[in-house]
Amino acid sequence: MFIAGFERLQSDFFRGLNQFVEPLVRAGLGAPVLFPAGAIVVETLGRKSGRRLNVPLVAALVGDLVLVSTVRRRSNWLRNLSEHPDVRYWLGGREREATAFAIGPGIEAPEELPQRVRCLADVLRQHSSLFGTGFAILMPRESLSEPLGASLTNKSE
Q1: Residue 13 above 80 pLDDT?
Q2: Which of 9, 52, 60, 81 could be stapled to 37 by a disulfide with Cβ–Cβ 3.0 to 4.6 Å?
């Protein structure tokens, strides 16, 4: 009973924190633009409710792919991405669209992965099976027309 109460408290804490952090991250604060890692907002579709949910996540850029994870083990966003892989996300204050490939305990991965996702997914599967962590790889639907940092570094031009 103590563990269930603690998990509920933890869930409520992160829900409140996300409500505060989400607008800041969506606006671009802390984005992995100038540094290789930071935070982004991913919009998922609830697999049970069907509601759109915005989740701030830890992110790292790997070429044109975005690797996302969280600081907690029990998060619904990963199962939501697995069920509904077409997502929107905000990186550096800009909205983008991607296909998400979820990797984690109890998540069935697609048989065929795009070549540029496959190698990274193989490494993350090993990490996930050893440590019980979850990840998603976001593959943008279209290439960015300018480097991610260009909109932040060239604002005066």
Answers
A1: no
A2: 60
Domain boundaries, the chain: 2-144
| 112-147 residues labelled b (16+ CB within 10 A) or e (exposed) | ebeeebeebbeebeeebeeeebbbbbbbeeeeeeee
CA nearest to 84, candidates 42, 46, 56: 46
- pLDDT for 115-139, tens place per residue? 889 999 999 998 888 888 899 999 9
| SS3 of residue 125 by DSSP | helix
pLDDT given at position 157: 40
Q: Residue 52: what pLDDT?
A: 93
Strand stretches in the chain, DSSP E: 37-45, 52-62, 65-69, 86-91, 94-103, 135-140
CA distance to 32, 40, 52, 156, per residue, from 68 (Å): 11, 8, 18, 31
* pTM for this model (two decimals): 0.79
Position 57 scores a pLDDT of 92
Measured in degrees and rounded to the nearest 5, phi and psi for residue 93 equal 80, 5
Beta-carbon count within 10 A of 18 CB? 16
Which CATH fold topology does 2-144 show? Answer: Pnp Oxidase; Chain A (2.30.110)
